[in-house]
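Researcher: We're reviewing a set of sequences before deciding which ones to prioritize for further study. For each one, I'd like a predicted 3D structure that I can look through quickly. This is Developmentally regulated GTP binding protein 1. If possible, include the structure in token form so it fits the rest of the review sheet.
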Amino acid sequence: MSTILEKIAAIEAEMARTQKNKATALHLGLLKARLAKLRRELITPKGGGGATGEGFDVAKTGDARIGFVGFPSVGKSTLLSNLAGVYSEVAAYEFTTLTTVPGCIKYKGAKIQLLDLPGIIEGAKDGKGRGRQVIAVARTCSLVFIVLDVLKPLQHKKLLEHELEGFGLRLNKQPPNINFRKKDKGGINLNTTCPQSELDLETVKTILSEYKIHNADITLRYDATSDDLIDVIEGNRIYVPCIYLLNKIDQISIEELDVIYKIPHCVPISAHHKWNFDDLLEKMWEYLKLIRIYTKPKGQLPDYNAPVVLHADRTSIEDFCNKLHRSIVKEFKYALVWGSSVKHQPQKVGIEHILADEDVVQIVKKV
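Model: Here's the predicted structure for Developmentally regulated GTP binding protein 1, in token form for your review sheet.
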């Protein structure tokens, strides 16, 4: 392990002392590709499967999963206790939480699982202080809460982002619009739909040769960087929405709070005094992109207490049926829908119909 870490340190040092200009772009692209390969080896070591992290992997329940990431003693456990009513040990010393503590909240009819993860320290992505297990759990979450201490926020924010990025998590980003397809012969074929400031054929070939890829079709649909290309080739990057929680706002003035409110993706809170939790929950709902569908049995009123919760990317009638039970799709005849996704109330729709938030659905089966 230390040899990989030494190699990573050597490459990072070389990148730090290399000037950035057109002449060195090729060399820097090669170094970035090597760095990404070494990082991947760190995450998934070659050889047999590693030992399971004790008490880290928690069974997934509910409609979404949120992980609390942050340095020790920023108030993650207090926040979990006050939000979910689950006791997570709280004390005035660092590293009180040693394993994942799960909790669950109900919000707008959706069950949301909250995970209080142990504090991570600088160098976590290289395996320091259980950091790798913590970030591995964060990779399975549908939303990440980065909890920061408001008295020292921005320095910590950069460090935490760096740790998570080094582990293949991309926060508040969309997957790069790059089409990449391997083939058997024909060399590297690069197509661009707009002018590129960083990537040219030579740089792309250098990066791909590091991965031993000599035949591929690549289409760049925007001004991409070499990091974006490496992300696409690696293919194990996870794009997660993230909210920064600035905790302990009871220790600062109103003027400072006004300034903090202008930071994007940020919610100032006080976990101890339970301040601003409603704003936090509202933002959480917005970032999770969940929609609620109500069911209506024939001849009865819709059931508004237990909605079926779907993700905004998968909202067809078919997804709705699969969420209820896998066998329903085979017996499906048509559905009646009331709500904003249809023109008439009710409207007869097929299995491809896309539903909107708070629609009411009645499914009619084949006899």
